[in-house]
Amino acid sequence: MGVFDRLPPMDHLRSEKMCFVQLIIPAESARVAVTYLGELGLLQFKDLNEDKSPFQRIFVNQVKRCAEMSRKLRFFSDQINKASVRSSVRPALEPEIDLEELEVRLGEHEHELLEMNTNSDKLQQTYNELLEFKLVLTKAGGILASSHNHAASAERELDENIYDREVDEGNAYLLEQGVHQGSSGNSGVRFVSGIILKSKALAFERMLFRATRGNMLFNQAPAGEPVTDPISGEEVEKTVFVVFFSGEQAKAKILKICDSFGASCYPVPEEMIKQRQIFNEVSARLSDLEVTLDAGIQHRNKALESVGSQLWRWTIMVKKEKAVYDTLNMLNFDVTKKCLVGEGWCPIFAKSQIKDCLQRATLHSNSQVGIIFHEMDTIESPPTYFRTDKFTNAFQEIVDAYGVARYQEANPAVYSVVTFPFLFAVMFGDWGHGICLLLGALVLILREKKLSSQKLGSFMEMAFGGRYVILLMAIFSIYCGLIYNEFFSVPFHIFGKSAYECRDKSCSDAYTVGLIKVRDAYPFGVDPSWRGSRSELPFLNSLKMKMSILMGVAQMNLGIVLSYFDARFHGNALDIRYQFIPQMIFLNSLFGYLALLILIKWCTGSQADLYHVMIYMFLDPAGDLGENQLFWGQKELQILLLLLALVAVPWMLFPKPFILKKLHKERFQGHTYRFLGTSEMDPDSEPDSARARHDDFNFSEVFVHQMIHSIEFVLGAVSNTASYLRLWALSLAHSELSTVFYEKLLLLAWGYDSFIVKLGGLVVFAFATAFILLMMETLSAFLHALRLHWVEFMNKFYHGDGYKFKPFSFALLADDED
């Protein structure tokens, strides 16, 4: 054990040591002190006013002011986006302003902008109404002109008709009467013109017909192009209509129906001369309004540009100020109402930096009383804080997605940096596909600065955040692809000649018969001569299946070893004696022995059947091994390992609960008691558990918990080992799918003489490789590697029931804004 004590500490394996601190801040320097702490970003405040609502807190008025300013800034941002005004990314240099001055300036800008919007909306509505009026004049004038022509032709027919005048008076059309008698007479025909939505025209006509009992004539003409509605401002399809009627009562009904259907009525004179005059007047007003609207838009855009150049800086300033007052609301006033008392967590290494910040705050606020900063004892479990960089952050996020580590618990992310991309590559091994992934990762890394300042989509943002994970996955995929000797499923003689050649020169079918070994084994990876042979699939299946078991046993052993270091670090002797040791014995007595047999078989070239060996190790331990014996004393070793595995199960189950019960009794009987640490009786490890409270020890609960844990490990040892066979299955599936695409798409198309067929086959092969092998297969292998880490590896030692260290930091506010 002394060897481990002499090893240097691993900074990333354990979370940072934390301390619980208290601050007593004079009221006059509270805001400045919290601002400086936000710039430092290494102190997590505890809310001391949890029982109070947001409206009962001390600085609620300041928070409301900041919220109101945030609303105005969001309004400016929406207006800038709506107007498509490009504001500079870097704000213009202007002198610093305080919050009061900013509040006044924001109010002035908002009032000015609202006034411009109101005027612009009124002018735009007038402009749209005049456009409709112009359209109604054009279309309705055509309808009226056709009505005049129809009336004139009707007169000629009546003059030539042989019938009596009385028949004419009884059967003449309303339109003819209107032409004869004029529109101004009391008994004459009048008309109403306007414009209505095309979708409402049919229902509008029916309603008019029913209301007037058929005593009207409805003419319509489509507008021909989308019209901007004056009220909604949307472009819609409309229809111009002219309704001929007789009588004041009918007119009142028609106008009410027009109003209810949302139709806009415009006065159109009957005489063509007056129509032309009004048309010219409307056109002149439209041109004047266009000039006015353009000038207003330019003035508004200039105002938005001036606001937009400072918008980012103002937004960050308001966010910081609001965050400061939100933090101050977490503090308590002391009894004298002159000091604010705060509590929180900080890393031990940050204590000196926090003290420097508080001293600067005292000086800059001209306070005569210094800020008191000291440590406190607490029974609360500290937060977990790992210092990460842009390379390790993605791996830490993968682990945190499963669960945040307990305080000072072993961090799986340290090992996942290597094991995660490697297990991915075992399933994805193809150095051609690996090069494609590598190029994609290099593009993301080389454009890192540019992409980090842009707004990315959800998929692109995920890929950019994991760019270094993709880089390592690509590098390991190239390595595993060289071992498998696959480049888009095609083998190459990269590291020398194959160990196999034809028996003689007449050997024509070199992939099936006639191959003999003529030189030493291929120096690195799989010999290319295995490709296409009859024994290719059995050979690769055997290789990858055994390799998967070796990797699984190694990683599970690593997880159990980490549980030892965790127990040793926290002083949990019971966990070492009655959890770590029996788990190591059980796992390695069965599956560690299987891994040993695989290695011996590879080294000796034995033909032993390992399935038979493992099955009859349980069914007939004392039976003769025969041809399946790999080494001397194998049968005796198997019996010993089987007995050790059987002993390890009750070793895990029974001693620990009874020892805990005995220690509990000794404590309350006044006997000498030395607390023997364990995770079941550590108050810091499970603060909400009944086992954490020594005065409320429940033996049945402890025993059931230990029984569940033991059964889960025993069954999990079998299922987890089998789960690692997914490495073999997905590697085989990836290889076979790649072979199918190469042979059935590319080679098949290349067998034709047509250039178009060859080009089509190449394009289809490229798309299949990109979308199926490089996207779907990458995602599949990623998810399976994720499962192997979360379930098979981390459940051996990782609790993952902690909570993150979330300091009060202005840098986080800037990241959120980006």
Radius of gyration: 42 Å
| Helical coverage, percent range | 55-70%
Beta-strand residue percentage: 5-15%
Note poorly predicted spans.
157-187, 671-694
Distance, first to last CA: 50 Å
Give a quick account of the main beta sheet: strands, pairing sense, barrel closure: 5 strands, antiparallel
The count of helical stretches stands at: 25
Average pLDDT rating? 85
What's the count of strands? 13
Helix-strand makeup class: alpha+beta
Q: What gross morphology would you assign? A: extended
Outline of the structure:
One of its GO terms (molecular function) is proton-transporting ATPase activity, rotational mechanism. Among the domains are: 19-108 and 304-375, no CATH class; 121-151 and 188-294, Alpha-Beta Plaits (2-Layer Sandwich), CATH 3.30.70.2750; 544-666 and 699-802, no CATH class. Helix content is 60%, strand content 8%.
Which descriptors apply to this entry?
four-stranded antiparallel β-sheet; 818 residues; five-stranded antiparallel β-sheet; 13 strands; transmembrane; alpha+beta; Alpha-Beta Plaits
Any overview of this molecule?
The protein is of the alpha+beta class and about 800 residues long. It is built from 25 helices and 13 strands. The radius of gyration is 42 Å and the shape is extended. The protein starts with a helix and ends with a helix. The relative contact order is 0.10.
